[in-house]
Amino acid sequence: MISAELKIGRTFGIRFEHGKDFMTELEEFCRVNNVKQGYVPFFFGDFSEINIVGTCSKVEHPEAPMLNSPAYFENVETFGCGTIAYDKEAGTILPHFHISIGSRLNSATAHTSHFISGKVQFLIEMMLVEVLSPSMERILDENVFNLRLLSFL
Description:
Elements: E1 7-17, H1 22-33, E2 38-53, E3 70-87, E4 92-103, E5 109-133, E6 136-141, E7 147-152
């Protein structure tokens, strides 16, 4: 187990607007407000288009991540949460969200997975809590499929 006591900074309420790209808006918010890391206890709302990780095909290693395997959906209701780490070298945030979606056009059929991208429909509401310390970074772990895992430095 890896853990750390977090020193909390500001808390923000954010509304993402209709027609906007969710990740682009999040990056802009963090840049404007100088937020480099934190956690999102929840966000919810609608996406007109969304990609989450998923497949209907047989995979060679089902236990491995499938980050390059998007499942596409339209007109969904969502609820998600996650963390935001910082890449010092690139000077960008590294969000990691998991999300549950319900397809309004298919009897609210639901799916849950890793969030890849989405275009806001109507609005997305988010609460974001800034973490001042320790430094939250994603460190490459060769033992876990070369994933960049959250670390506290």
